[in-house]
Amino acid sequence: MMPPNCLVCGSTDSATEFTVVYFAVDAEEKAAFARRAAASWVGHPENAYWFCAEHLHLGTDREAMHWREAVAEIMAISTRRTRLPPQR
User: Fold this and answer.
1) Tell me, what's the pLDDT at 78?
2) Alpha-carbon distances, residue 12 vs 3, 52, 53 (angstroms)
3) Residue 22: what are its φ and ψ, rounded to 5°?
4) Average pLDDT of the chain?
5) Over the range 17-55, which residues count as b (16 or more CB within 10 Å of their CB) and which as e?
6) Which regions of 1-88 does DSSP assign to beta strands (E)?
7) pLDDT tens for each residue of 12-50
8) Which DSSP category does 21 fall into?
């Protein structure tokens, strides 16, 4: 798992509370995750993003959305964007 880094503001402040949000995946991605788990894969899943407490609602409000759509929507509505979204 990658260390906390808010998707919206880019905060990595150790004094900040962070939460990881897992967005929806499609059937093909779900199957790929299962294959990785069977192979004891370790890493940061494509659908998991960190949010600081201030921006957490932007993630939790969209948990049911596919991760690509959710991230695109969050970045489009964010007025505090200080960095580009991760390229996955």
Assistant:
1) 82
2) 8, 9, 12
3) -105, 115
4) 89
5) ebeebebbbeeebeeeeeeeeeeeeeeebbbebbbbeeb
6) 18-22, 48-52
7) 998 889 999 999 999 999 999 999 999 999 999 999 999
8) E
The pTM score is: 0.83
> Three-state DSSP class for 16?
coil
What is d(CA 63, CA 79) in angstroms, rounded to the nearest whole number?
Answer: 20
Q: How far apart are the first and last CA of the chain?
A: 14
**Which phi-psi region, left, alpha or beta, contains residue 5 (left: φ > 0; alpha: ψ -120 to 50)?**
beta
Closest by CA to 88, choosing from 59, 45, 55, is: 45
- Taking 3-state DSSP, the helix, strand and coil percentages for the chain, each rounded to the nearest 5, stand at 30, 15, 55
Distance CA 88, CA 2 (A): 13
